[in-house]
């Protein structure tokens, strides 16, 4: 009799335990799931179509600078499409797009840029769309650069105002990992956005660096003491990661590269950019790994 009571008690405990586990499972299934936003990419490219891309004004026998840009863009698109390719269909939720500021006068360039705004989600994802995205980003940017060079109307780069008025609306979205890739030589200049507040400016040119005497070994102390740098254009970019590619300093100043990178670094830190890297103009084959590593690594 005692044995039967023990068996009955053990049986009841087992039944109750199983029932509780089922209830817990049902509760968990009904609870809202937290989105893993780190796997949703929102990549934006900002192109500087100023005279820096001119093969006449700034020729490079190894590889023209506009062709380097095209190579960098191709690496970005490859990283993007590979990311999408490895995701399950139901998790597809990624974007890639391309911007200029100011917009070129050539309507054909603007038309092509619209075609480069692509969203891949669970309703349209397919091998064809992924391959088409990779193809269009491998070919259309070259057309854009060739058209810009043919026009020869280099109106400058309004990067500062892009950060002030557009970056939040164009490049940052909730539930995404937001990445902005900037293709620039590091100098910023646009006549209609030429602002100076104290010793801080919305622009940077080789002439500014020289006139501020930042061509000496003590450039860092001088820059800090005189509060030289970019005017802060945004208060909070903590949801944005930025990769700057193509820094091309004036070779006549051995400190120019350091000065340019200091301007950009201080600017990004003041605007609370989540994560950033600033890289020189190198051959695309050398930069491919750098670009893909930046996009594949998510640092929260």
Comma- or semicolon-separated keywords:
single chain; 300 residues; alpha/beta; Rossmann fold; six-stranded mixed beta sheet
What's the architecture in CATH terms?
Answer: 3-Layer(aba) Sandwich
Q: For the residues shown, what is the average pLDDT?
A: 89
Low-confidence stretches: 18-36
Order of helices and strands: HEHEHEHHEEEHHEEHEH
Shape category: globular
Main beta sheet: 6 strands, mixed
Assembly type of the chains comes to single chain
Provide a count of the helices: 9
By DSSP, the count of extended strands is 9
The domain tally reads 1
CATH C-level name: Alpha Beta
Helix content: 40-55%
Structural class from helices and strands?
A: alpha/beta
Distance between the termini: 63 Å
Task: Describe the model.
It is a single chain. Helix 2 (about 65-85) links the parallel strand 1 and strand 2. About 35% of the residues are buried. The termini are far apart. Mean pLDDT is about 90; it is low at about 20-35. The chain is an alpha/beta fold. It has a single domain, classed as Rossmann fold (3-Layer(aba) Sandwich), CATH 3.40.50. Helix 2 runs antiparallel to helix 4. It has helices spanning about 1-30, 65-85, 105-115, 125-150, 160-170, 205-210, 220-225, 255-270, 285-295; strands at about 40-45, 95-100, 120, 175-185, 195, 200, 230, 240-245, 275-280. The longest helix is centred in the first third of the chain and has 29 residues, at about 1-30.
């Amino acid at each position: 009799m005692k044995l039967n009571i023990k068996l009955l008690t053990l049986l009841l405990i087992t039944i109750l335990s199983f029932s509780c586990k089922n209830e817990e499972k049902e509760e968990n299934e009904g609870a809202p799931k937290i989105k893993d936003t780190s796997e949703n990419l929102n990549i934006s490219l900002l192109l500087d179509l100023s005279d820096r891309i001119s093969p006449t004004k700034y020729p490079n026998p190894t590889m023209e600078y506009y062709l380097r840009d095209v190579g960098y863009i191709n690496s970005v698109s490859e990283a993007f499409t590979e990311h999408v390719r490895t995701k399950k269909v139901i998790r597809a939720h990624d974007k890639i797009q391309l911007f200029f500021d100011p917009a070129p006068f050539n309507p054909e360039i603007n038309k092509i840029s619209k075609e480069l705004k692509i969203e891949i989600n669970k309703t349209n994802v397919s091998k064809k769309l992924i391959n088409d995205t990779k193809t269009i980003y491998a070919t259309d940017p070259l057309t854009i650069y060739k058209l810009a060079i043919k026009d020869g109307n280099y109106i400058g780069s309004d990067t500062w105002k892009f950060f002030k008025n557009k970056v939040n609306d164009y490049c940052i979205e909730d539930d995404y990992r937001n990445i902005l890739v900037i293709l620039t030589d590091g100098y910023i200049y646009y006549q209609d956005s030429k602002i100076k507040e104290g010793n801080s400016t919305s622009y940077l040119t080789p002439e500014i660096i020289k006139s501020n005497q930042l061509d000496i070994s003590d450039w860092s102390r001088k820059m800090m003491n005189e509060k030289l740098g970019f005017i802060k254009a945004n208060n909070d970019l903590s949801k944005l990661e930025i990769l700057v590619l193509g820094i091309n300093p004036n070779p006549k100043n051995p400190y120019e590269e350091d000065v340019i990178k200091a301007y950009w670094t201080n600017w990004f830190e003041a605007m609370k950019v989540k994560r950033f890297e600033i890289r020189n103009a190198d051959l695309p084959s050398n930069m491919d790994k750098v670009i893909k590593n930046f996009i594949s690594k998510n640092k929260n």
